[in-house]
Amino acid sequence: MSEDFQPNALADELYLARRQRQPGVGLAERYPLATLEQAQQVSECLITRYLADGQTIAGSKLGLTDTRMQAALGLDSPLIATLLSGWQVNGGSLDISQFLLPKLEMEVAFLFSAAIDDPEITDVALQQAISGVTVALEICDSAYQGGPRSLFEAVADNLSSGGFMLGEQYHPADPLALTELSATLTNHGKPIAEGNASQCMGSPWNACRWLVQERARDGNPVQAGEILLSGSLGPMVPIQAGDRLELEMGYLGRLGCAVV
């Protein structure tokens, strides 16, 4: 490890930046990260600060589910980050002042009805452990001034997590239908982003199964009531006050969001 590696000090500054809604200045220079393992250690320290402040774990999210992006960054699998209960945005209205550099991603959300500790779980058993699937928007954000400049910085900041919005209606977890999903995000009725299931490990179902199996192998099994955001189906989109967004995603329906 680098002599400059200070996981707790960096986690403190990332946490404070989010709490005060003031981006951390010079974090990359003062706390250089040399490896993915270092970045993940910082992220773990960061989450412990949220938990100590009364937050609870809501589930997980996957990042870098596009295999082309993985290859470009020298990875052979997605990355996992933590979702916290206080990050869920309800009511269809998003207060942009609560974030630093908010951007949206089009996601699929899985809600688990049972714990899963089988690293070789079958599709049938996985379907039985999922109470429903819905359309979702992830609000990506960053405590780094100007946003992360490297993969390691994004990972240290819990994969640039900021919040999430979920659809009101849950639907059956249909592996075939999920493979055929397409997504369109509009602003005031005009398309601003499009994507499909192929950008998410070929299908959000594949991403869900991988996450469940990976967490079981790590001794941190998915629990009943947890949510999974399975990875973006398209590009990340910056937002601003006055936006009127609507995400349409096949059989999963629609999700509206007014940015104020």
Q: What would you note in describing this structure?
A:
- By secondary structure, the protein is of the alpha+beta class.
- The protein has helices at residues 7-20, 27-30, 36-52, 67-72, 123-128, 151-156, 175-179, 204-217, and strands at residues 57-63, 79-84, 93-94, 103-112, 130-140, 161-166, 182-187, 190-196, 227-229, 237-238, 244-248, 254-259.
- The N and C termini lie far apart (43 Å).
- The model has no long low-confidence stretch (mean pLDDT 95).
- The strands form 2 sheets. Strands 1, 2, 4, 5, 6, 9 and 10 form a 7-stranded mixed β-sheet that branches. The protein has a 5-stranded mixed β-sheet with strand order 3-12-11-7-8, with no helix packed on it.
**First-residue to last-residue Cα separation:** 43 Å
- Number of structural domains: 1
Unreliable spans are: none
CATH architecture title: Alpha-Beta Complex
Q: What sort of overall outline do the alpha carbons produce when their principal axes are compared?
A: globular
Structural class: alpha+beta
- Major sheet size, sense and barrel closure: 7 strands, mixed
On the 0 to 100 scale, the average pLDDT is 95
Question: In which range does the helix fraction lie?
Answer: 25-40%
CATH topology: Fumarylacetoacetate hydrolase, domain 2
CATH homologous group name: Fumarylacetoacetase-like, C-terminal domain
User: Beta fraction of the residues?
Assistant: 25-35%
Number of helices in the DSSP assignment: 8
Protein name: 2-keto-4-pentenoate hydratase
GO molecular function: 2-oxopent-4-enoate hydratase activity
Domain Fumarylacetoacetase-like C-terminal: 103-259
Keywords: Aromatic hydrocarbons catabolism, Lyase
